[in-house]
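I am hoping you can look over what I have pasted underneath with an eye to the fold:
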Amino acid sequence: MGFEIIEEKKVDGYEKVVVAKVGPKKLKVIVAIHNTNLGPALGGVRMYPYENEEKALTDALRLARGMSHKASAAGVSFGGGKAVIIGNPSKDKSPEMWRDFGKFVDSLNGKYITAEDVGTSLEDMSMVAVETKYVTGLSELEGGNGDPSPVTACGVVWGIRAALKTVFGSDKIRGKKFAVQGLGKVGYSLAKNLAEKGAIVYVADISEDRVQQSEKELGAIPLDVNEILFADVDVISPCALGAVINNETIPKLKAKIIAGAANNQLADENKDSKLLEKKGIFYAPDFVINSGGLICVVGEISGYDKAESMKRSKSVYDTILKIAKIGKKENITTAQAAIKLAEARIHKGK
């Protein structure tokens, strides 16, 4: 049992990109390390049935860069990295595969620290931890902080409040209308948090069971998955797939704010952020507003618990306000302002 290195790719702007095979099925794994100026590259391992290696590589590179920016904006001493495994998480997982992956991570000598992500779980990370110490996001029984989703959602709420403050002059959630797209762990936790604060919450998800659960437990109002983005609400919260805000959807948006947990919400970071600003829609940059999960897993390494992670996620509020201020002062979009803020700290290496 072991892993097999296939190749190391040279990619401009990235410190290290390695392709390997793991497990009995010889699944391909790509680890992309974007930048370690602030510390070891931290980022989850995503398992997804990509059509081909090229698409998997594109995802790994984009996500690794996003993690560098996220860690920088969150003020933690880590860089950005990401791993992707080409496989079906419901069919292709095995203890052997995860142990091989753990050995692969260990061979990078701490330059990359892994964690759970889309298609992976706390249980998977437990198996990875058998072979390497360079893993975080473990269960509370194993001394970790457990599922980071509630902390991510908590940070998103703080980010939403900052966006409301910027747009409406008040950060009060009560009475405001929200459209939450996607009711996974983070999306459902966000919808619950908003409902408890007196918001009117509309929801959509491909799972009818989750939608019905949100109706019953939260009093949420269901909408069609194809229409949720265009609801007549104050805030849209994308919490599912990326690239949903694009040149086709933007003209149909009615909300004044986009603030959600999904990664890479804009199909084209530069063009789409400009289209949003032109339309008068405030965009809370995704890698800033969804950084609560990162804060939570960093806690395991840095020695603070989940309750402290919740408290620290409040930093998202101040960061969004700072980004709004930079954008206004320098006449750039919030997406550009967020990257400028993150890049400045990365290049200082502090």
Remarks:
- The mean pLDDT is 95.
